[in-house]
Amino acid sequence: MMAFLFGIFHTWLVLVAAPLITGIVRLTKARLQGRQGASPLQPYRDLWRLLQKESVIAETASWLFRIAPYLVFVAVWLAATIMPTFTTDMILTPAADLIALVALLGTARFFTALAGLDAGTAFGGLGSSREMFVASIGEPAMLMVIFSLSLLTHTTSPANMIAYVLSGHIGIEVSAGLALASMVMVAIAENGRIPIDNPTTHLELTMIHEAMVLEYSGRHLALLEAAAMVRLLLFMTIISSLFFPWGIAFVDAGPGEVLLGLLAWFAKVSVLAMVLGFCESLVAKMRVFQIADFLGGALLLALLATIFLYVSEAV
Amino acid sequence: MNPAEHLASFGRISYDTAHLIGAVILMMSFGLLYQRRLTAVIRTYSLQAMVLALAAAWQALVQDAPHLYASALIALLFKGIAVPFALNWLVRRLGIHRTVETALGIGPTMIAGVGLVALSIVLVLPVTASSTAMTRENLAIAMSVVLLGLLMMITRRNAVTQVVGFMSLENGLILAAVGAKGMPLVVEISIAFSVLVAMALFGIFFFRIRERFDSLDIAYLETFRGERR
Question: In terms of CA atoms, which chain A residue is nearest residue B113?
């Protein structure tokens, strides 16, 4: 019963918290740039404004263009329900593992790219082709990270992974460190953050994600932006819950532990949001053709993480 | 308290931390292969030497071997500060083109690098069959750093980046040395000084090469030696 309630609460929690986290990232960047910056609640107002607006659809666009935002949003939201935030005791957690999570994110990306192509504009096609280029290296890298973590913890289910890490069976593993570095690089690429892509630009020829959704407006755009925010929060949760799982409540935890898990999770993702904002202020965007090297590096780190498991006899 | 008890009192966490620092050094070796700018290469090398100093200091603490603090200090002062400073001075002085010229692309080099790491693990596993996993991991990391240094020397055309490759190779040797118990300080000091002397010699060579060929691209040396390109 509790698992059911926690599951429902978690599902809405990620959706409600996602714009706030995006707001924190934006505020951090604004402050570092010497601006006052909008309140962290601004993304909620943006989404609300977009939902009120009329959605304009290109004459050449097919039915796919209309349903893509819903599919993308649902896929990302479902992926977010798999990853435990404050407790591992959730109804949906045993239903799917991390590989399913990658598959759901891949589905979302596939439909975004199709929608980008569908309207037939030059920018959309350009964005889609670049997104697929990023994905072709980013996705294997993410799977490789998950494989090395699975070898280390003997499971692919996030809840069991967290339990294994917290049980103290593994110390500070070299493999885990390499996997973390790789995961951070993948997360940057998957969310289209600097230095891979700039989420705030609409005027550069270098944009990736924004180029695909350029044709969208109104409620469709709101859904796509919400999906992007949930995805950002999801990746932060993956990093904080898998690599720094301390504080997460288990099955049959008391209300105090659940509350602690909630606070710990929120503190972790807020810190990650501020770190992201800080790091984005430090680096410049990369040239598109250097992305292959960046993500290739992530893939190699993940590969090294797996290789080192066999040296340290952790397998 | 005898050394074995002292080691045991730190338990597994000491090994794990040592390996984690080793892994950071290894990642910086990959960073050296990945960088495209000469100044960034030198900065990465400097960082690697500083992390090496940290590794030596950690081993000094864990093994209760005060002479390793001296190794750490040598690594920090000479390799972390003096050598990068000298290299930066050389780059400025010689007015070298600031981008790294590679004989092999960055991507293939990185793949070759992972291959070398796998190779060093394959080599280390049978040799250390009788010892613990701890020694094995340490040796594997150190050997990978050495091989990556060699790879960097092979795949870079510019003499300065080749020297950085040589220095990072030497970092790998020191990493292996501080991990093993009973390495005399004399050996380390002599290695550190020979590296400094090598650095000075390289500096002179740079000037000579550039005077002769107006470039630091060692491809010119190949024709000079009568090799066909």
Answer: A300
